[in-house]
Amino acid sequence: MDEEFCEVVVTAADADWLAGCTRTLVEERLAACGQHVAPIRSVYRWQGEVHDEPEARVALHTRRDLVPRIVARVGELHPYEVPCVIALPLVGGNPAYLRWIAEETLRP
Q1: What residues does 37 pair with on adjacent strands?
Q2: Which of 1, 25, 47, 82 has the largest CB neighbor count within 10 A?
């Protein structure tokens, strides 16, 4: 059962915007929940320059088969030209929690 779930990480410059985006994804049942961390510090190269900026991060818990829909939806909503949206597989977890993720997200 573990192999059907993942954590999707999304970052944004505005923590409040990210919380609203997370709420949208949960309301649309693309994710069961989102756990926010802010601020984080992101160091990255963009358009030939190195940037060092504060951001916020959310870890979404969802089904792996919903990742393409999450990537598309975040792409529609996100102010960044190239938003960070990455999926990390879950290799284990509380079986009751994993069932809860399954119950709270769209069925395949």
Answers
A1: 57
A2: 25
